[in-house]
Amino acid sequence: MAKSTLTFLYLAFLFGIELNYLRKSYIHQERSFVSAEVGSSVTLQCSYGTEAARYYWYKQSLGQKLQIISISYKFAESGTFHDEFKDNPRFTVENIDGKSQLSISDLKPSDTGTYFCASGISFVFEFGEGATVSVKNPVLENTAWVRQSESGAVQTGSSVTLNCTVQTGSCGGEHSVYWFRHSGESHPGLIYTHRGNNNECEKSQNTQTHTCMYDLPIKNLSKSHAGTYYCAVASCGQVLFGNGTKLDLESEAVSLSLVYFLSAALIFTVILSVLLAFTLHKMHKRNCCQTSGYFCSNLFSPLEILLLFCDLHYAAVNANQLSRSRRHRKSSECVYSAMTQ
């Protein structure tokens, strides 16, 4: 019985530790989009908590699975590289005080992709946000390029179509086009893929290049659609990114402007109604008192006149009745009436 109790307490203790790890994030990688030229260098950083025992670096190329780059232990200054990254002097890893740095020198077009840092504690494995690296080749960009539609502000609930024009160069072969969305809340994520389609491309006879146009329609826009959309093409052994199209949603600003406008219109209408009521009261008082001062005390008050405006149908009927009765009275006689509820 005692042995069973100790086993239960031990498992509960381990289970409590696992739950604590699940609730607490112990890895941090800054979201970033790095654009660099061939031959330059980049350094990617990642911070780990004190609980992390092993550090990992992964690479994900467009349309490909994750590739492990290196594994290093907590107190090791460098890591062990795997697969195609093994014995490659262009890739180095340095670990200092809970931080890991992945440096890539002499960049090549094949280095384009998203790099993730990761760490594992017991049975819990966590990835960082990821950093996307785009390597551009100035020589190839003279024949291959990506252009996107301009950024702009759109309203919530409307629709928009993003355009991407791609020139694939003269190397021939099929190409793939990818759409990414990058917002402040998440790292760039793949949202759509175009495979090579000759129906969308035009071939230039002089330069033997292909110019293709791709559209990304987005309907019923909401706040979740806000962000920067990137168009990328994988062709000729390289990946080219566009400059991005930023969508800003204007929902709250438009609603507040409409509320302010309607409020100002309502206030103006009320003030105008009060002024008209007082003006009409003074006009009736001046005209009728010149005829007979005896009836001046029976004039409508400004409040009664204002209430009279609120019931136009009754006022119209009452006015017709008064106009018919005036035909049988003398022109010098003033007739006053009051509205009763």
From TrEMBL:
Where found, per UniProt?
Cell membrane
Q: Where are the transmembrane segments?
A: 258-278
Please tell me one Gene Ontology term that the record gives under cellular component: plasma membrane
Name the InterPro entries for this protein.
Ig-like_dom, Ig-like_dom_sf, Ig-like_fold, Ig_sub, Ig_V-set, TCR_complex_component
Any one of the GO BP annotations: immune system process
- Keyword set for this entry? Cell membrane, Disulfide bond, Glycoprotein, Immunity, Membrane, Signal, Transmembrane, Transmembrane helix
Taxonomic superkingdom: Eukaryota
Q: Where is the Ig-like domain positioned along the sequence?
A: 39-117, 138-255
The protein's predominant localisation is: membrane
Q: What is this protein called?
A: Ig-like domain-containing protein
Taxonomic source organism: Xiphophorus maculatus (Southern platyfish)
